[in-house]
Amino acid sequence: MFDVTCIGELLIDFTQTKNADDETISFVRNPGGAPANVLTVLAKFHRRVEFIGKVGSDSFGQYLQQVLIDSGIHTHGLKFSNEVRTTLAFGLFHHGKDFVKMNSFKVKAVDTTGAGDAFLGGILHKFIEYKVHPSLLKVCEVVEMAMFANTVASLSVTKNGGIPCMPTLDEVDDLLYLEGRK
């Protein structure tokens, strides 16, 4: 039995990289898609998770399947199609000295692509941990959930990509400890 199963998109985000000459644009392949990003967080937090979706029967689809497997995500529900191609998305970013402040966590933002997905993964992890219906949560538990999820999201923006940027549970615990919140 799985803790969480997600149905939806799985894609390749091609994110812009900074070039020394500032005249050419290069892109790096990053696996992602909101459901897969959320599942990656949960898998890194030792949850049993499964993805259901469809990709093209192409090299990108094969790559994405391997990324999910390597991330600890079960892929029994991943289907391949000769009728469609794997979705590719291209993003251009301003590369400056941007900082993001999330509830007192000041972090150097590299790529905010998966921040919301990281936050949701943190919330779901805590729901599973508490084993209680949301209506029965205490205020202190809701505050702890929000702080934990915010920490996950804060760490996710410090790296490039969707799936590759998701932090481990140890990284989240370390930041909470350093900030005196654990």
What order do the helices and strands come in, and which of them pair?
Elements: E1 4-7, E2 11-17, E3 26-32, H1 34-44, E4 49-56, H2 59-70, E5 73-81, E6 87-91, E7 99-102, E8 105-108, H3 115-130, H4 139-156, H5 169-178
InterPro entries: Carboh/pur_kinase_PfkB_CS, PfkB_Carbo_kinase, PfkB_dom, Ribokinase-like
Organism: Neobacillus bataviensis
GO molecular function, one term: ATP binding
Describe this structure as you would to a colleague.
- The chain is an alpha/beta fold and 182 residues long.
- The protein has helices spanning 34-44, 59-70, 115-130, 139-156, 169-178; strands at 4-7, 11-17, 26-32, 49-56, 73-81, 87-91, 99-102, 105-108.
- The chain has a single domain, classed as UDP-N-acetylmuramoyl-L-alanine:D-glutamate ligase, CATH 3.40.1190.20.
- The protein has five helices and eight strands; from the N terminus they run E-E-E-H-E-H-E-E-E-E-H-H-H.
- Helix 2 links the parallel strand 4 (49-56) and strand 5 (73-81).
- It starts with a strand and ends with a helix.
- The mean pLDDT is 91.
- GO terms for molecular function: ATP binding; kinase activity.
- It holds the Pfam family PfkB.
User: What would the CATH topology be?
Assistant: UDP-N-acetylmuramoyl-L-alanine:D-glutamate ligase
Compute the CA-based radius of gyration: 17 Å
- Can you count the helices? 5
Output the CATH homologous superfamily. Answer: Ribokinase
Give the strand line-up of the largest sheet.
1-4-5
Uncertain stretches: none
Shape: flat
Distance between the termini: 31 Å
Mean pLDDT reading = 91
Q: Can you tell me the CATH architecture?
A: 3-Layer(aba) Sandwich
